[in-house]
What does this fold into?
Amino acid sequence: MVKVYTSTVIDAPADRVWATVRDFNALPAWTPFVAESRIEGGLPSDKVGCVRNFRLRDGGVIRERLLALSDYDFQCIYSILESPMGVRDYIATLKLSPVTDGDRTFAEWTAEFDCDPGREAALSEQIGRGVFQGAFDTLKERMRR
It folds into this structure.
C-alpha cells in the first residue's frame, strides 16, 4: 500500500477555507487541473455516497465517491472509483485545522492506494506534488482574494 501525505498553511481562517473545499463538486474553482465537474444522479454535493464525475484539463475522466464529510472536523474522505492513473483501493482524506496564531489554516491531504509494482514512486510524486500541492497552491491564491 502506497501512502502520500501533503500539508500546507493557508493564510485564511479554517471556516472560510472549508466553505470552499467542502463542496464535493467545486474542484474546478480551486484546483488547476479540473476543467469541469458534476455530481451524478442529481444528488446534493454534500451527500455522503454521492459520486463526482470530473474531466481533467488533459481530457482524462475521474469518478470519486464521497465517503465522509464533517463540518465539525473540517474533513472529507473520498475514494476513487475510476481513474486513468492506474490506482486501486484509493482512499483520500482532506482535513483542515485552525491555526490560532494569525487565524490561518493547517491543511493536510493524505491518500492510500495500491498500484502496479514499480509505479509507486511516480504515482506518489504525481499525486503528492502534482495533485495535492498543486491544488493547495491554487487554494492559497484564491484565499488571498
In short: The longest helix spans residues 120-144. The chain has a mean pLDDT of 95. The two ends are 39 Å apart (CA to CA). The chain has one domain: 2-144.
